[in-house]
């Protein structure tokens, strides 16, 4: 199991990558949220129970997409644009996934994608080895 202190620190590091990242969580391959953090000035839009349900649905969607990997390749991240927020699911490895929520701004989709590619994925790559079940 990944150490809680590391998860807490990692989520704080993710939140500090950019002002538009307002919520970050880590879930396991079963859709169980292991750690959730949000910026202090942000009131969460979803309750803890709703976040758990969203995590579970994210894993279900991801598992369904795996059957297409031989033809289209592995998921780098999945992105959803909602009226109030942008959300992304980022696979860390086969056992752990990150959920991100971005503050919505005009033309924020391209910015959210840029943040994921240029900031989030490089940090995930550096820390990936810490996400192992022992």
Descriptive report:
The structure is a single chain. By secondary structure, the protein is α+β, with helices and mostly antiparallel strands. The chain has one domain (4-128): Beta-Lactamase, CATH 3.30.450. It contains four helices and five strands. It has a five-stranded antiparallel sheet, with helices on both faces. β3 and β4 (85-91) form a beta hairpin. The protein is globular and about 40 Å long. The chain starts with a helix and ends in a 7-residue tail after the last helix.
Which features characterize this protein?
5 strands; 5-stranded antiparallel β-sheet; Beta-Lactamase; 134 residues; alpha+beta; 41% helix
Ordered list of secondary-structure elements with their pairings:
Layout: H1 4-15, E1 21-28, E2 33-38, H2 48-66, H3 69-72, E3 78-81, E4 85-91, E5 96-103, H4 108-127
Brief characterization of the structure:
The chain has helices spanning 4-15, 48-66, 69-72, 108-127, and strands at 21-28, 33-38, 78-81, 85-91, 96-103.
